Amino acid sequence: MPKTLTLRIDDATYRSFMKRARSANRSLVNYIETTVKEHIRESDFVDDSEMTEILANEQLVERLRKGSKNAKKKKGAMIG
Q1: Where do the domains of the chain lie?
Q2: 3-state secondary structure the chain
Q3: Whole-angstrom Cα distance, residue 28 to residue 22?
Q4: Per-residue pLDDT averaged across 10-14, rounded?
Q5: Residue 58 CA: distances (Å) to CA of 1, 43, 53, 64
C-alpha cells in the first residue's frame, strides 16, 4: 500500500526540483519519486570502471567464484 511522506526542503532546493520537474513534464512528487528510484537502482550496480577493477583482481575473482559455488550448494552462512 502506498505511503505518504512529508519532506521538508529549503527554498533553493524546492526551486531546483520544480525547475527539473517542469522540464521533464512531471509533477514535483512524481519527479522526486522517479529520481530517487533511479538513484537507488543505479547505486545497486557497479559501473564499467568498477567492474574492470574487480575483474583485474584475480584473488577477488577467485573468492567470488568459490563463494558462488558454495552458495549454489547451500554451503556457508549469510552474513548480514
Answers
A1: 11-72
A2: CCCCCCCCCCHHHHHHHHHHHHHCCCCHHHHHHHHHHHHHHHHCCCCHHHHHHHHHCHHHHHHHHHHHHHHHCCCCCCCC
A3: 8
A4: 96
A5: 45, 24, 10, 10
Which residues, 6+ apart, have CB-to-CB distance to 55 below 8 Å?
A: 61
Question: Can you tell me the distance from the alpha carbon of 38 to that of 28, in angstroms, rounded to the nearest whole number?
Answer: 15
Please, which residues have CB within 8 angstroms of residue 34's CB and are 6 or more apart in sequence? Answer: 26
Query: Could you report the per-residue pLDDT of 15-29, keeping only the tens digit for each?
Result: 999 999 999 999 999
**Is-contact 28 17, C-beta < 8 A?**
yes
| Grid coordinates given for 74 | 547451500
Residue 78, pLDDT > 70, answer no
Residue appearing with cell numbers 537507488: 40
